[in-house]
Amino acid sequence: MVMEEKAKKLLILYASETGNAIDAAERLGREGERRGCPVSLLSIDDFDPSSLPEQEIVIFVVSTTGQGDNPDSIKVFWKFLLQRSLTQNWLSRVNYAVFGLGDSSYQKYNFVAKKLDKRLSDLGATAVVERGLGDDQHPSGYEGALDPWLSTLWKALYQRDPKLFPKGPELMTSNKSLMDQPKVQITYHDVAEGTLSIPDVKLLEMQIESTRFILPGKLSGKYRPDCFLKMVKNEPLSKAGCRKDVRHFEFEAVSSTVEYEVGDVVHILPGQDAAAVDAFIKRCNLDPESYIRVQPKDKENDQSYDLRNALKVPVRLKTFVELAMDVASASPRRYFFEVMSYFASAEHEKERLQYFASPEGRDDLYEYNQKERRTVLEVLEDFPSVQMPFEWKRTGLCSSWLAVLDPQKRVLIPAWFQKGSLPSPSPSLPLILVGPGTGCAPFRGFVEERALQSRSGSTAPILFFFGCRNEENDFLYRDFWLFHSQKGGVLSEEKGGGFFAAFSRDQQQKVYVQHKMREQSFKIWNLLTEGAAVYVAGSANKMPSDVLLAFEEIVSKEGGVPKEAAVRWLRALEKAGKYHVEAWS
């Protein structure tokens, strides 16, 4: 009797911060399964690191946050890998591959993937392919690197063991069978008994619980909000009619006392435009007043789902769309187009959707989707033959809802607080702040707090470099900065500080924050030698690297050292926790 050999399984472990690594890992899993290889897909914090030597093939998909920081989900795993008791051949039987998601505008670009790759190799594991590094700065995002890396990975795995892919690394079965198995199941209920008697804050909290396992990023694990906020101020900061609408918001807690420090980050779960929600529900032929429960398709194998915390009361379908689905602002991901193609009845629409979902169509998809910022609703309307089941709709958060929120109306905003990548500085720490555009926002809090501290004792000086396009149109918080830079304020020169603004479009030659920094190189160097900390916040495009280059030139010039020595000096500053960057796209 011949025993059939058990099929080998690909283990895919992901560590995600905002959800991108999950998407990339899920794509890896789908492509592996379509090549005939069983796949096990897990968040890395659901995997026992002590069992790693027992695995034959492990693919890691990890993101990097802030200044080379680990996502929360990988911290326990990484601490385990750093144990001195682990030998150089501990992973000698393990084959692995690493794909990282990062942003090249940061100095420690894809640092988590790089150090994980090195540590696995040091412990004796064998790399199947060279690590892949996805870059947010690429026009197609991380997929610009993921597409070619995956092609190389499948070929390398097949060469290592042809039994992994019985029909070869290029032949993929139709994904139709996978399309029949969405990640969630929706149960419809005739009524939601008992909801009318529940207070609005508690009801909203319960509704959030019902959607928690599909909320993106860190909110998925901490589903009960720290508090509920009410907007009390919504003021435009930029001049009406200019290119950007920049606003100042103020909130107060409704349900509990808010505890936070300057530099903390608040996450909110907003609603979205009511007309867009209604249009989406109508386009999908849904009943907005029906009540539903949304649960994982396979609760037994879904380790992120806790049945003890299951919602006792169903949620109204319209409320679910408002809370958990971004139909009116976010552009859908590439996989959304692949799923749509299986539900398109018109052949020309099916072919176009399949092209968009393929590596060959990636650039055209970027032109159609991300560049034009098309929403889920707009895409669905462009392909009228597509009739997708509600279980397959993608989820996300709205970004433009706050701008039109009326402080006079009582709208409850679920909020979560967490430590940001800009730690709160002590009053005795000199500061060099660089915050062009909306990057000035966290530093407004720094300056305001230091102004309060200066009333009861001495405080260290602050140098602040701000930049915008025009002094007239988008000089954000102008009066605030000028007030604190005069009459002995914490930004005043007589206190050893200073405020310097660069208006890039107010003259023929563009002037940016780095130009103002070079003009004040002596002051910057003096504060650095006094132990100052550097904080940089703003656009993640070229700004962080341009600012770092300016610091390197200043240290080299004023310190009288070669450029290479200046680079090492700034790296030591960062290692000491005195060079912080928080940038966003």
Characterization of this structure:
The protein has three domains: 164 residues, Flavodoxin domain (Rossmann fold, 3-Layer(aba) Sandwich), CATH 3.40.50.360; 199 residues, no CATH class; 154 residues, Nucleotide-binding domain of ferredoxin-NADP reductase (FNR) module (Rossmann fold, 3-Layer(aba) Sandwich), CATH 3.40.50.80. It has 18 helices and 18 strands. It is of the alpha/beta class and 585 residues long. Strands 1, 2, 3, 4, 5 and 6 form a six-stranded parallel β-sheet that branches. Strands 16-15-14-17-18 form a five-stranded parallel β-sheet, with helices on both faces. It has a four-stranded antiparallel β-sheet with strand order 9-8-13-10, with helices on one face. The protein is globular. The longest helix is centred in the first third of the chain and has 18 residues. Helix 14 links the parallel strand 15 and strand 16.
